[in-house]
Amino acid sequence: MKTFTETAHNIPNIINPRNIYFFTDGSLIQFNRGSFDDYRVTYFPTNQNMNLGYSPKDEDYFSDLLELRTVVGHDIIWGDFMMLSDIVRDNISGENNRPVQPLNDREVNEDK
What we know:
Radius of gyration: 14 Å
Region (Disordered): 92-112
Oligomer: single chain
Structural class: alpha+beta
InterPro entries: DUF7004
Strand order of the largest sheet: 3-2-1-4
């Protein structure tokens, strides 16, 4: 599982960035232009250096989820996965596929 404590991949040319989620530690999740569409998900460990980022592949996501379910349980993983899916769905406008308003930790936790 990627811990994001090691040096992240260098992404020198970010095209069409759309911030999705800001964490309280200064990191963020963003949609940007990937190799075939505008929906590459990139994790930036710090918003101070946007050249560092990690864009996990689908296999990374799902292998991590399989590993985490043995730690926290299937129901928690499924619930969190659905919550994140809803956040992405609810925060993209149909007109230009840009986030309506980027979220942060406090806004998500207030909904719980």
